[in-house]
């Protein structure tokens, strides 16, 4: 029976308890089977829609009659130990459950809207395990740019990108890459998304006063070698990260910045002194996730000479070496295998900015993001755009997807 057929059964329409338990389980199982990252349960004026975010894009998967909305929300709230009688405030919770032998870990958020409560469930992926660095789509040059700072005895490495850009997965892969029995790796995260073997992970708990700065100070008294700080959101945490680096620790963290050079600007904006950044920062990276073309249905793309020439001009200006042989690009079509989306799974496009003497001097002199970016490109950095076009030349992704994800129009 499909999810929609199940939802149309009389016991669900009558909103019977047992049927709702089964429906909620089926929704979670279907989301996991489709590789969804989030489940949205949205009230609309006439009905309720259940949507999955798959490969970064929302898709409607189920429509339910209006009278099922409140009982289903109540069921999901009960699963996350939320207050089912309270429908007026925002609530957050977590669901840990076993369904037919499979472990599930979901974070739930419920928010009141004018049409009723909306629930969002994020699936935390304990099942598939974490990919290693070699599986994340780094080109050889970028992997070298990442691996050499990872071997440094001290310094700050920052992974940046908007939420949902895969930076946590990459930070974890980097941590696993350098984990050895003889080093003490400690993390402070909000929340701990995956448990990593061989590391001591601490979850932020604001109610108990365990914030990023408090946790980080505690870690620094616990004789760490390598520290991972889930997010730098305030000056105090940022300062502690740089102090830790100056006193001989390798620190990895994450920051909301749109580009690698933007990381430096963001740290300056937070109030870190330029000389502290130029001495402490060893690598800033930025990334976005792009959808991989379905190999069963992708088609050769036909572009005008003008488009190709604009594409080449921009890619070369951003560090890409254009091949002598005209490249072949592919575009998405859609077939049964890829649910008519033309895509399956995602990989990242990167830019890696290592700190060197020149970039350090520019940082100390408060050079602009653009000046630092241009200097980095001259030294061999490829931007996310150039990395994306390189990957499009291999046929793995489409040019359209790179332009879409980076909001570029040619
Ligand atoms: Zn396909």
Overview of this protein structure:
37% of the residues lie in helices and 27% in strands. The protein has 410 residues and is an alpha/beta fold. The chain has 2 domains: 3-124, Beta-Lactamase (2-Layer Sandwich), CATH 3.30.450; 133-405, P-loop containing nucleotide triphosphate hydrolases (Rossmann fold, 3-Layer(aba) Sandwich), CATH 3.40.50. It has a 7-stranded mixed beta sheet, sandwiched between helices. Helix 10 (274-280) runs antiparallel to helix 12 (357-364). The longest helix has 17 residues, at 17-33. The chain is globular.
Produce the secondary structure layout.
Layout: H1 3-7, H2 10-13, H3 17-33, E1 36-43, E2 47-54, E3 57-65, H4 66-79, E4 91-99, E5 102-113, E6 116-124, H5 140-150, E7 155-160, H6 167-178, E8 185-189, E9 200-203, H7 212-220, E10 226-229, H8 235-246, E11 250-255, H9 260-270, H10 274-280, E12 281-293, E13 299-300, H11 305-317, E14 330-331, E15 343-354, H12 357-364, H13 369-378, H14 384-393, H15 399-405
Parallel strand pairs: 7-11, 7-12, 8-9, 8-10, 10-11
Antiparallel strand pairs: 1-2, 1-6, 2-3, 4-5, 5-6, 12-15, 13-14
Helix pairs in contact: 3-4, 7-8, 8-10, 9-13, 10-12, 12-13
Bound molecules: zinc ion (ZN).
Zinc ion binds next to loops.
